[in-house]
Amino acid sequence: MSEERWQISVEDSCIGSAVCAGTLPNRFRIVADKSEPVESEIDPDDEVLATAESCPMEAIRVIEKSSGRVLVPEE
Amino acid sequence: MMTATELPAQQYPFGPNEGLALHPHYAELREHQPIARVAMPYGGEGWLATRYADVRTVLADPRFSRAATADREDVPRVNPLPQPAGGILGMDPPEHSRLRRLVARAFTVRRTEEWRPRVEQIVDDLVTGMLAGGQPADLAAQLAWPLPITVICEMLGVPYAERERFRGDTDTSLALGGVTPQEIQDARDRMRAYLAELVAAHRAEPRDDLLGELVAARDEGDGDRLSELELVQLGLAVLVAGHETTANQIGNFIYTLLSRRELWERLVADPGRIPAAVEELMRIIPLGASTSFPRMATEDLELDGQLIRAGETVGVHLAAGNRDGSVYVNPEEIDFDRPEIAHLGFGHGAHHCLGAPLARLELRTALATLVRRVPQLDLAIAAEEVHWRSDRLIRGVQELPVRW
Q1: What is the pTM of this model?
Q2: How far apart are the first and last CA of chain A?
Q3: Residue B222: pLDDT band by 50, 70, 90 thresholds?
Q4: How far does the CA of residue B193 sit from the closest CA of chain A (Å)?
Q5: Cα nearest neighbour of A72 on chain B
Q6: DSSP H helices in B205-353
Q7: Model ipTM value
């Protein structure tokens, strides 16, 4: 059982396409035409990576809390 | 609740499309019967949503499924054949996300921006060719079609010289009428076989393009990421969606601007408004000829006061939602200075247009190049004499004769 946690945030470049909220409504929601994470800190979840990688604006950031490594977007 | 269920289903579509006009019945439904019962050309009766908020709900709420509609003859729809299974447009998360992440990286705003110099060069060359060919010229044939076909061929790794191997079949596969179901099936089969050939060629000789990336993702992955059929279908989806929509929309844009000269002159005088103009034209132009890609309710639910039973389908009309007066002031007006409100032109939710950043780049570049190099561009015939494609999912001109 890993104790790793991920931090999720949505940057201001979000255009509210709802690719994320339509894919993972338990993780992202649209508020006033912009997406926001339902919880900003989560247990590691590959579905969140897949969804973050599908953001057309690369507005979703997923950070590994222990190392500060940016998992998405890729460099 | 449930009042609309007692109204008889209305025959869909409501009438023939005239050019780019939206049938007035959509506005009536949006006002009085936002979730309307409609009898579709194939598959029986379903629901139709026309309000902006309802359209967004249907497209983003996971209780509405695309996967449930795949390969089912009894799904109410406009297309003669049902959505084939295994395609990205017939999937729900998480299967959909598994495929989408493989191609999404190639179509982010950042990656698309790397294509800008190439897109500008392609547009420049096409405009030079059109001008050299003399007037009148057919802008559809000289610019609108070759631009997106060239770009998607280069991105994906499809030889441009072989475009006749997918052009006619793409057209047939998106037909709503005028062809037999067997002809549509044959067109789908030929295109799938063509993509399978391309995949084999990429496998024999690895290449640095999107199809090469997908082949690598399948062959180097653990096998769970992408099946061979999914690889072929995904490549085909990118190829088809990557040109048919943009090609028609470029013609629709130029037609709209030139037939309402003040809009064209505004962009000639102020090319800085082009990005805003692209969004506004995406909002107002009903690119889709009708509702398409219906969603099936996976449980009983309520939508804008209407009970939708599990197993019933709801279609949305993007252009009707885009003219919702509760969201846009003077929604029928074209206004390049409109406050920015996310339109539905590229859809919404998990299936929001993968290629939207590329479409924006191509549309902006086409407009910017034309207003700069050919500000005197005009229609060579009266606007009402322009011929429109019919019986197709995507609206567009047959030809667009222009002079300068």
Answers
A1: 0.96
A2: 29
A3: low
A4: 28
A5: B105
A6: 210-220, 228-241, 244-259, 261-269, 274-284, 318-321
A7: 0.93
